[in-house]
């Protein structure tokens, strides 16, 4: 687990809210506080969709919404002349990318052993911090997955010029 302070908050927020940079990540939770607190639990409700969309593999293979699906809503809550009081966004790596991470980690763990690989974006008191974390279904002293995830996310942020 690492904590990364984001020094160029405006650049980060522009990429977060106005581009598709983070759209592939799933959202397990979002909380945005402006004049009130808006809370999104991230759960995907398939019964909302028409039958054709509900059977789409992009929908059936996951239980969480993607950032791309809620980004515009979050933008509408955040945009304005004043910064939000705070927000916390909990992103999860999609299952489709987990095999790449496991290969990088060089671990014997399988996807079934992992509940999720996360990063949190937390803004409070004009400070934005990203923290990483993993949640496993098994006990292990092996931290290679944690280290691989920390490095993978750091590389992603560098490639997007978001350090």
Oligomer: single chain
Biggest beta-sheet profile:
7 strands, antiparallel
Q: Termini distance?
A: 17 Å
Can you write the helix and strand succession as a string?
A: EHEEHHEHEHEEH
State the low-pLDDT regions, or none: none
Let me know the average pLDDT: 92
The outline comes out as: globular
Describe the structure.
The chain is of the alpha+beta class. 33% of the residues lie in helices and 28% in strands. It contains six helices and seven strands, in the order βαββααβαβαββα. Helix 5 packs across helix 6. The longest helix has 16 residues, at 144-159.
Could you list some keywords that capture this structure?
single chain, 163 residues, alpha+beta, seven-stranded antiparallel beta sheet, 7 strands, 33% helix, 28% strand
Describe this structure in a few short sentences:
The protein has helices at residues 9-18, 51-54, 57-60, 67-78, 98-105, 144-159; strands at residues 3-6, 26-33, 37-40, 65-66, 86-92, 114-124, 127-136. With 163 residues, the protein is of the alpha+beta class.
Write the layout of secondary structure elements.
Layout: E1 3-6, H1 9-18, E2 26-33, E3 37-40, H2 51-54, H3 57-60, E4 65-66, H4 67-78, E5 86-92, H5 98-105, E6 114-124, E7 127-136, H6 144-159
Helix pairs in contact: 5-6
